[in-house]
Task: structure prediction
Amino acid sequence: MAGKLKSVAVYCGHQFGNNPDFARDAAIIGEMLAKNNIRVVFGGGNVGLMGTVANAALNAGGHVTGITTHDVVAKQEPLHDNLDHFEVVDGVNERKQKMFDLSDGFIILPGGTGTLNELTDIMTMQQIGETTKPLFFMNTNNFWGPFARLLVHMKKTGFFVHPEEYNLHGANTAMELIDKVLNY
Result:
């Protein structure tokens, strides 16, 4: 059924990375989600790619929810103050659960260990049957290529046994990713 995703969590870096294409795609995705009336749920920071996604969505008239932790607030990282909803929770596990609960699907942009943690949590939940919510990878400049090769290696060595248990979708351009989200 086309258009069934009404709210999508976007997991990505709180840095920009070293390639301007990362921010370009983050902005396109934020804008396109907003223009298609899909709420953006994100980590709440007004920094890096996460800030880029949120700002693009807001500038396009979208709805954005930020979820952060007390520890992030204590580090005085710039938080977004122009959101529809903003919540501060006790820790990273509560944050991930809240973002999961508020989302119909997930978009993974380039990022660091936090992004990797978030995507593997969703994959683990898919594997054990806790969710069938889709996970969309934005493979800007082959950023997720090494991860895909790791999954192939895990399959060859008997640890990624049933790939059909996962609801994964990859895209090499922002427009391809948006098309997959809209037609999911």
